[in-house]
Amino acid sequence: MALHWSNPQDGIIIFLLVLLVIALSNLWAFRKPRFSCEPSRWPEVAVLIPARNEAANLPYCLESLRTQDYPGAFEVWVLDDDSTDATGALAAQFAARDERFHYLRGTPLPEGWLGKHWACQQLAETASAEILLFLDADTWLAPNALRTAVATFEAKRIDLLSLVPYEVMQTWGERLIQPFFLWAMMAFYPLGLAFHLRWPALSFTIGQFMLMRRQVYFTIGGHAAIRDDVVDDMALGRRTIAAGYRWRLMDGGELVRCRMYHSWQEAFQGFSKNLFGVFSYRVLPFLFVMGWLGWVFLQPWCVMTTHLLGIFSETDPQKALFAILLSFLLFGVAYLRLRIPLYLTLFYPITVGISLIIGLYSLWLTLQGASTWRGRRLVRPRIRWL
User: Fold this and answer.
1) What single-letter DSSP state applies at residue 112?
2) CA-to-CA distance for 361 and 371, rounded, in angstroms?
3) Of 162, 193, 222, 256, which residue is the least packed, with the fewest Cβ within 10 Å?
């Protein structure tokens, strides 16, 4: 089957083959942290947890930290970011029972800051440990998670280590929405190349678990430098790489678990707040990518539908079927590696379609300055066309 870029259907197939090569290469590059040898010295670690209305999640997170087998000194700092539930009281209870745990009440949010960013900045300025671990309150860790992560961090002389957790998904809203964004990491980011080239645009970091040297954090400006960027984890990663520091993204599925959302509505709203931000608020590149994704993954289904209905079309149903099979393979490879239930690959057209709707909604919310999260209006970022 001869393929030519000038033919739209051939272009789809060639593009899918490129993505499949990237995904297959990431099976090797996306590695698990390993405890191969003890570092000569275990550095002190400060676990920093910004928490706003996390009473349902925080006890599980803190209990998992209490049972860590880390050989060195570590402390846990929880900042209550103006919660209206029992978050502060729960954090205070843990602090009263264990001297390694500390509770902070956040100060009022300054103008121009996003809430989580201000909380993280306060936490980092309070803690004095050499290594900072930014951890989301909806995560929980295996007993060896901190020890394994720090051992890898020191052995590879990394300055920023981000672990991808195992994402717990229990509702159909979560199952149809969340996998798309992890799949995009596997399919669009050639990690092996990114680690060596150190191009900020190729970086991918996840804020649910980010281990970082304190000196590096403040050298790149901390959260103060990205105070209004809703995609703070990606922004911190890009600034770290731009400054010449070493980073790694690794598979933390055996060490860290997270349940980001608990319903269709939460997942839709959660990704709507930041999907446009992944593109640094550039309108035309964002629209191009959204349109191209829709064309690549949904057009072959339209071709097959018109063919089965007997509607005249100049497109080739065999090439459309081949593109669909490649798409199934591409999603299957990524889902299998990420421990996402393999049967969800059957729903990839729905997942892509919903993600496109979320993307356009994210753009609209940002342009209107109407984005909110956890009861707060987000700062309207600087929007550019290119």
Assistant:
1) T
2) 10
3) 193
Most confident range, picked from 253-262, 315-324, 362-371: 253-262
Report the alpha-carbon distance of residue 86 to residue 91 in Å, rounded: 9
Q: How far apart (Å, rounded) are the C-alpha atoms in residues 332 and 348?
A: 10
Amino acid at 123: L
Q: What is the DSSP letter of 248?
A: E
Q: What is the pLDDT of residues 167-217, one digit of tens each?
A: 999 999 999 999 999 999 999 999 999 998 888 888 899 999 999 999 999
Quick one: pLDDT at residue 381?
A: 80
Domain limits of the chain?
8-26+278-375, 30-277
Helix 8-29 vs helix 172-188: angle between axes, to the nearest 10 degrees? 90
- What 3-state DSSP class applies to 16? helix
* DSSP helix/strand/coil, 210: strand
Longest dimension (CA), the chain: 74
d(CA 44, CA 265): 40
Pick the more confident residue, 307 or 285.
285
CATH architecture, domain 30-277:
Alpha-Beta Complex (3.90)
Integer Cα distance of 361 and 367 in angstroms: 10
- C-beta separation of 187 from 338 below 8 A: no
Q: Computed from CA positions of residues 118, 119, 124, 128, in that sequence, does the dihedral angle turn out positive or negative?
A: positive
pTM exceeds cut of 0.90:
yes
Q: Which has the closest alpha carbon to 204: 171, 163, 175, 176?
A: 163
Q: Is 228 left (phi over 0), alpha (psi -120 to 50) or beta?
A: alpha
DSSP single-letter state for residue 376? E
Task: Find the helix packing angle between 317-337 and 8-29, rounded to 10°.
Answer: 20
DSSP string, 294-357: HHHHHHHHHHHHHHHTT---SS-HHHHHHHHHHHHHHHHHHHHHTT--GGGGGGHHHHHHHHHH
Phi-psi region of 74 (alpha: psi -120 to 50; beta: other; left: phi over 0): beta
Mean pLDDT of the chain: 92
